[in-house]
Design brief:
elongated; 53% helix; 3 helices; binds zinc ion; mainly alpha
Length: 135
């Protein structure tokens, strides 16, 4: 296996292509427009509807656990007021997912290829000489 699971995680956390490691997940000059395929290695990035929904749920899950839950705990322990918590939760529920959008797309690709690393083109076995199926 040329691309290891450690490399897949490192590339996923730094928003890089899981196959070649280049910063090619998003179209140059855009914030939210994802490439259908990596311009460097040709890996299909936008695979199907499940990839969008998966990254969306991952995004909201991280927002819930890492932002909304701490706001709730702070309000529950009366460290911040209820009105402050409501405003923070309302604004954060929109702003945090927008800020995590790019990362969540990368995290979902990382998640997929972490469990199925042999689906990466770089990890496909070399065709064996004399094997007629690959011709
Ligand atoms: Zn690539």
């Amino acid at each position: 296996m040329k691309v290891t699971r450690v490399q897949i995680v490192a590339r996923g956390l730094t928003n890089r292509c899981p196959n070649c490691g280049e910063r090619t997940l998003f179209k140059a000059g855009t914030l939210f427009e994802i490439n259908r395929a990596c311009p460097s290695c040709g890996l299909r990035i936008e695979r199907d509807e499940g990839f969008f929904l998966g990254s969306l749920s991952l995004n909201y899950g991280v927002t819930l656990v890492c932002f909304l839950l701490p706001v709730l705990v702070l309000a529950y322990n009366k460290i911040i007021g209820t009105n402050t918590a409501i405003v923070l939760a309302g604004v954060g529920a929109i702003l945090v997912p927008a800020l995590l959008y790019r990362s969540s797309r990368s995290w979902w690709l990382m998640n997929y290829y972490f469990f199925l690393p042999l689906h990466l083109p770089a990890n496909k076995p070399e065709p064996v000489a004399g094997d007629d199926e690959n011709i």
